[in-house]
Each structure stands twice: as C-alpha cells, then as structure tokens.
Design goal:
Length: about 550
C-alpha cells in the first residue's frame, strides 16, 4: 500500500494540469455534445410531436436490417413514442462520439506525451511512476461526469413529452459509463503500443470491432436467434442499449459496464508496471531496408502516410450511402403519414417525393464526406507540429510541392467520396425498390454539392498556410455550423433565412425544388481554387513551427 501511494504521488495535481492545459479542447467537445443532446431532440419533436400514427409508421423502417445494424433494435415497437425515437436514433451515435473523445484524451495524456518526451520531464519532478496514467484516467473520469451532467440537464430542460427524468438520466449515464469503458481500453492500448498513432489505431480498431459485434448480435436476435444476445452483450455498445431509455428504463447494464471499467484499469496498471518509459509492450515493426518506388516522390509519401485514413473514408462513404439507400422503399408510405415531410418535400413537376427525400439525404452525405478531405489537409499541420515536415523540407522537396501533394489528395478525395456515397445510395435503393430511381438522378443531386466541399478544402489549406495554430479549431467549428445548418436548418423556421446561407451547403440548390443556378456554383468553385492557389503562395512566406 505504501508503494502504491508513492507511485501515485502527484496524480491529482497532474490531473488538474491536464484539465487546465486542454480546457478549450474539452469545452469544445462538451459544447458539441450538449448541442447534439438538445437540438436534435427538439428537431425530432418539432417534426413528429405526439402524432402516434406517424411514429408507428416509423417502426417498419427502423426494423429494417440495415437500420438495426446502424442504430440498434427497436424496443416496444407497439408503443413507439418520441422518447423511444430519440433514444433509438441518437443514443448509439452519442455513445460513439463520447467513446472517441475518451480515446483521444487518454492517448493524448499517456502515449502521446511519452512520445513527445513530456512525461520524462514530469518524471524529473517529485511524482510517482503511476502519476501520468492516474492523472489521465482521473481527467477522463471528470470529463465523463460532466458529459453525464450536461446531457441529463439538457434533456430535462427541453421538457419534451415522454422524455422523462429517469430516462434522461439513463441516456446520459449510458454515454458517461461507456466513455469510461473506452478510456480504460485506450489506457490498455497506450501500454501496448509504441507510438500514439498505433495506440489510436488499436483503440479505434477495438471500437469498430465492438460496433460490428453489436450489429451482428442485434441482427441475429431480430431474426429470432436468442443465443445471439451473447454477441450483443459482450460488446459494451450492445449491452448499454439494454438500458432501454424512455421505454422500460433498465438500470442493470450499468453495474456490468462499471465492472468492465475496473477490470480494464487494472489491466492497464499491470501492463504499465511491465514496461519501460517510452516503450510499448508490442514493439514497432522495423520498416524495409530500402524505400519503395512510392516513397521516392512527395505525393507518394503523403499517400503512404494517409493510406489507412483514405481506405477508411472510402469504405465509410459507401456503407453510409448504402445504409440510407436500404430504407428508400419505405419512404413513400412514411411521408404520407407525416404532414411536416409532405410540406418540406414539395417538388417541382416531374419529381416524386421519394426523389425529394433522396435529394434531402444528399446534403447529409455531402457534409459527412467533407470531413475526410479536411482531415487530409490538417495532416500537414500535425506533421509540422511533430517536427517531421522540417526533415522532409531539408531535402530537395520544395515547400510549395509539399503542401500541393496534400492539397491534390484532399481535392481528389473531396470529389470521389461524395460520388461513392451516392453510388452506395443508388445501389442499395435499386435492390429494395420495385421502381428504382435512376443512377443519373443520384449523381446529379450529389454533383451540385462538390463546389461546397471544395470550398472547405480551400479554406483548410489557406488556414494551414497562414494561421496553422488556429486552423483545426476554426475549420472544424465552421464545419460543425455548416453541418448543423444543412441537417437541421429547415427544422427551425424561426432562424433568419440568411443564416443558413453562411454555410456553403446553404448556397447549393435542391434540384427537386429549384433550378440549378450555375453562376453561384461557378463562383464557389472559383473561390475554392483561388484559396488553394493563395495557400500555395502564402505557405512559402511563413516560418515553420519549431
């Protein structure tokens, strides 16, 4: 016990330092989660209200295998309420966001700090061996408590019928507890991996695997295989859905999840005692003795660094489009029961309501796929911040060509990802619809959004070239605003009409309602390319980060 006390010395002070160091980063996450926890339920309530007929019409669509795999099973389908819809549509996505936040935080405070040799400096002070790991977990615990508090308070304050206080607590607690589970998973991966990149990859891979395990279990249970609940319950993402928030309000999954937290934290402490500072229990693989042909060019190096990210985004775009496409055969019947959608999906002559809905989905797919090119551009700043850009530019590589390589990849990605999402949407809808919509309609509907996505690429490049330290926060903040306006703007009629126009997506026409205004799209494209060119020029004018 005495040794444990000595090894933990300074943990609380270090945890306070971590929280103070990244208070803005934490605030951004908490603000985003609060907006998601309140704005989306208000939007859902404004659409469906207490219309039981419309809510019941949603059930067959949500019991579609693709939707079960995406968001989980429908609990009590015979008494479907607004609360049931909010939990069914939002809870799993909120949990995934909180899980990702915890992974980012814990890896940042442990393996990333070791990699940057900050832990070595901290160890030179009178602190214990376990102080860094303790502080990282204490910080994660505090942040998750805040997630629970603000989510619960937000859901209670908006005061929506059937969104009860007990159900709201379970909804919020589910997010916080699963967040702690993934904080424990990230702590374990930080002991195994030799680099922060590997720790993030291991943690993200486990998150993806557990999501697939939950999807498989829920799908098999929906088909009547009772044994398949083992698959869902083994995954924290499947077990936590059994709280059945706003339905039967079950508390029993939470103690099991807390037990998982204790076990994972214990494993992390054990592994930490078995390794040296700066080393991982799984050593990094030695690279090849000689560089391949791809690494002989600047563009090839960028592609190699971004390879896994590009593959993941391509896969996600296709799957996301297919997920939406799999419910297209239910849309026409559903719209007939909902006056809001009947009004919102008014079309020009020659277009059906199903085509109008598909066109509405395009802004969602376009906004989500825009995140991939933004991440690609911001990779240049992460490389510069880590000191690796300086090593590349110390060779014969010119600054302009270095930034241009990432810009080219981002531009190509910004072009193909939306079209791949449209392909997935068309392919899945063609399989389930008796009278499929033509592929040309999907590609035309998505193509008009390409200039808006290129604007994000140009803005990100320009920020990296001129003000790199604020580039990430600025571009992601603007992206979040644009995504919210594109997704929910029409659901809040009291918002002044000019505010959605501040987003590039607000300037793009819905082809089922409006004529395509080619000059607007041409100006957006010109501004995007102008910012890209300006970025290449201005990048050569500033000093590198040191």
């Amino acid at each position: 016990m005495h040794n444990l006390w000595l090894n933990s010395k300074g943990s609380l002070r270090l945890a306070l330092f971590f929280l103070r160091r990244d208070w803005l980063y934490s605030l951004a996450w908490l603000t985003g989660l609060l907006i998601f926890a309140t704005a989306v339920p208000m939007a859902i309530h404004s659409i469906y209200g207490a219309d039981s007929q419309t809510l019941q019409a949603m059930v067959p669509m949500l019991q579609n295998p693709a939707m079960i795999a995406l968001v989980g099973p429908v609990f009590d389908p015979h008494n479907y309420t607004v609360g049931s819809l909010i939990a069914g549509e939002m809870l799993l996505f909120a949990i995934l966001a909180v899980a990702f936040m915890n992974i980012m935080f814990v890896v940042r405070y442990t393996r990333a700090d070791e990699e940057a040799e900050r832990v070595e400096l901290i160890r030179s002070l009178p602190v214990g061996r376990l102080s860094t790991l303790n502080a990282a977990l204490i910080s994660a615990f505090v942040i998750n408590i805040l997630v629970v508090a603000i989510t619960w308070a937000g859901l209670v304050i908006i005061n929506i019928p059937t969104v009860t206080v007990t159900g709201s607590f379970l909804y919020a607690a589910a997010c916080g507890v699963v967040g702690m589970v993934f904080a424990g998973i990230a702590a374990v991966c930080a002991q195994l991996a030799s680099t922060s990149r590997s720790a993030l990859a291991y943690s993200g891979g486990i998150l993806g695997l557990l999501y697939l395990l939950r999807a498989a279990g829920d799908l098999l249970m929906a088909q009547g295989d009772s044994w398949a609940k083992v698959l869902s319950y083994v995954s924290p993402l499947g077990l936590v859905l059994r709280v059945e928030a706003y339905v039967s309000n079950q508390f029993w999954p939470l103690p099991y999840l807390l037990a998982q937290v204790v076990v994972l934290v214990g494993i992390a402490y054990f592994l930490n005692s078995r390794r040296d500072l700066g080393a991982g229990l799984i050593p990094a693989k030695p690279g090849p003795a000689h560089a391949g042909l791809m690494l002989t060019s600047n563009l090839g190096l960028a592609l190699r660094l971004l390879r896994n990210t590009l593959i993941a985004w391509i896969y996600m775009a296709i799957v996301l489009g297919a997920s939406y496409g799999s419910i297209m055969n239910y849309i026409a019947d559903f719209i007939k029961t909902n006056p809001f959608f009947q009004a919102a999906l008014q079309t020009a002559q020659g277009y059906s309501t199903t085509e109008a809905f598909a066109s509405l989905i395009m802004v969602v797919l376009a906004a989500i796929t825009a995140a991939g090119p933004i991440m690609t551009v911001l990779k240049t700043w992460r490389e510069e911040e880590a000191g690796r850009t300086e090593l590349v530019l110390a060779t014969s590589v010119a600054r302009r060509s270095y930034l241009a390589a990432y810009g080219i990849i981002a531009f190509v990605l910004a072009t193909i990802l939306p079209l791949l999402a449209a392909t997935g949407l068309w392919g899945a809808s063609a399989l389930v619809m008796s009278d499929p919509i033509s592929a040309g309609f999907f590609f035309k509907s998505m193509a008009v959004y390409l200039p808006a996505i290129w604007l994000f690429v140009g803005a990100a490049l320009l920020l990296v070239a001129v003000y790199p330290r604020v580039a990430s926060g600025t571009i992601w903040g603007y992206f979040a605003f644009s995504f919210f306006m594109g997704y929910f703007g029409e659901l809040f009629p009291k918002i002044p009409h000019w505010i959605p126009k501040l987003s590039p997506f607000g300037l793009v026409p819905n082809i089922t309602k409006d004529a395509i205004h080619w000059p607007t799209l041409a100006i957006m494209t010109g501004i995007a390319f102008g910012m890209m060119v300006a970025a290449l020029v201005l990048y050569c004018e500033r000093d590198l980060s040191s």
